[in-house]
Design brief:
This protein is α+β, with helices and mostly antiparallel strands and about 160 residues long. It contains 6 helices and 6 strands. A hairpin with a 6-residue loop joins strand 1 (about 35-40) and strand 2. The protein has a 6-stranded antiparallel β-barrel with strand order 1-2-3-6-5-4, surrounded by 4 helices.
């Protein structure tokens, strides 16, 4: 069952507040499977940072805009696909894009794999029942299928 009354996940303002609270911690040491995405504001030109669930595999990183293409950082990426990504293992520059048809399944499999205990806390924000590995993976699969998945081609900065 969804947590329909949780303002941190059901409103754009709540999402910004949650990201702002997590940001200082994620900049120091993001949990495995999470990171800080920096885009360039499409109107302001300023650097915009958001905490995101991101899975790095080789020279690619996979992330999903849960709320879809209307998400501000997706609009920023559409205007300028050059991004910076801070994950465990370092800071990377990259170019974000939507996955091609032939890599969509691989992207979903990478994104839906469990990577840390932090996912159990994340699950409790979205669901009322007790988190299980299968439930967490199902939640991530739902995000991937209903949101806007992105692939970031990485270069070490």
């Amino acid at each position: 069952m969804d947590r329909r009354r949780n303002p941190l996940i059901n409103s754009p303002t709540g999402g910004r507040v949650l990201s702002a609270v997590q940001l200082p911690f994620f900049l120091v040491r993001p949990p495995a499977g999470y990171g800080v995405l920096t885009t360039r504001g499409r109107k302001s030109g300023k650097a915009r940072r958001r905490c995101v669930r991101v899975v790095k595999r080789g020279n690619r990183a996979y992330l999903v805009a849960i709320k879809g293409p209307r998400t501000a950082w997706v609009k920023n990426i559409q205007a300028d696909p050059h991004v910076r990504l801070r994950v465990r293992g370092g800071l990377f520059l990259g170019i974000a894009r939507e996955p091609k048809d032939d890599e969509r399944q691989m992207a979903m499999e990478a994104y839906c794999q469990l990577s840390s205990r932090f996912e159990y806390l994340e699950y409790r924000m979205w669901r009322q029942e007790r988190p299980t590995p299968a439930g967490i993976q199902a939640l991530h699969r739902t995000w991937f299928e209903t949101g806007t998945p992105l692939v970031v081609e990485l270069d070490r900065s």
